[in-house]
């Protein structure tokens, strides 16, 4: 799970495995595999970095 911030400043956790697409237009929109869309404050690059950290953490646990 990665933690992001909704536009109303609420922290939410989303399953990084369910992210299908991240777009900036100008707000950052995360589209999940279910089709649900979330508008968040973090940039596209910040989401990418969070997902990379999540993937590294998961792969270390598997060792």
From TrEMBL:
Record keywords, A-Z: Cell projection, Cilium, Flagellum
Pfam assignment, any one: FlbD
Protein name: Flagellar FlbD family protein
Organism (species): Mobilitalea sibirica
């Amino acid at each position: 799970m990665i933690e992001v911030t909704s536009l109303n400043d609420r922290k939410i956790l989303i399953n990084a495995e369910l992210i299908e697409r991240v777009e900036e237009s100008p707000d950052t929109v995360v589209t999940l595999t279910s089709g649900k869309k979330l508008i968040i404050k973090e940039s596209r690059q910040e989401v990418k970095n969070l997902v990379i950290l999540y993937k590294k953490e998961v792969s270390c646990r598997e060792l």
